[in-house]
Amino acid sequence: MQRLGVTARVARMAPRITLYTIGPSQNAIRTELALREKGLDFDRVEVDLFKGEHRQPPFSDLTPRQQVPTLVYDGGDGEIVVYESIATIRFIDDMHPEPPLMPPVSEPRRRAEALMRIEEFQAKLDPRNIFGSVAFGGQSREQLGTRVDDLVGELDRWEVYTTGRTFLAGDQFTLADIAVFPLLMHFEALGFDYASRTPALAAYMSQCKARPSVVASGWLEAFTAFAEARAPQKVLAG
Prior knowledge:
Layout: E1 16-21, H1 28-38, E2 43-46, E3 70-74, E4 79-83, H2 85-95, H3 108-125, H4 130-135, H5 141-144, H6 146-162, H7 175-189, H8 194-197, H9 199-209, H10 212-217, H11 219-230
Parallel strand pairs: 1-2
Antiparallel strand pairs: 1-3, 3-4
Helix pairs in contact: 1-2, 1-7, 3-7, 6-9
């Protein structure tokens, strides 16, 4: 008598994910948005950088950079620690392909656009961190000098990128939007008037602000309160 084969199905356990973050951070919110877009459960642990908690165990033992965001991911094969915000969102998208947060390779033009925007914003949108110079360095408009003009010129370029489309790579919300949108909020907080100066960017930002993952995170409120307290100077107004 032929013995019937039995196929054993082993369900892969849901990953245990811990996100170490701080509420107002434009870097840390990227990781949280990627997790929320994927519908993944995660534990959110606030690390108060202003009290030096990032330099104290147990967090200080996780990463040599002692920075947020830091993602601890355990898919059943042991913990993986991922830091640097762009690395975390790429890792999340790789580990959980559905729903996708990048255009597929079958759409090479849109995929190339998304990849370029991710690389481009890091190197060219605000490489010297105007918001940090104001919020943590107390610099005035006069002290920032030509950096303001350079930023405004760069925002004109991103106005072109967003003209006639919903998001940076078309109608799909991608890792490029998760990367860039939080940084654009820095400039709004410093008084840049998107509506009158870059209307396509203003419409783009409205779409991002209304994204369910952004709303659910509460980041807009946390960041706005932080910016009002630490960077009340509207150095980009006018």
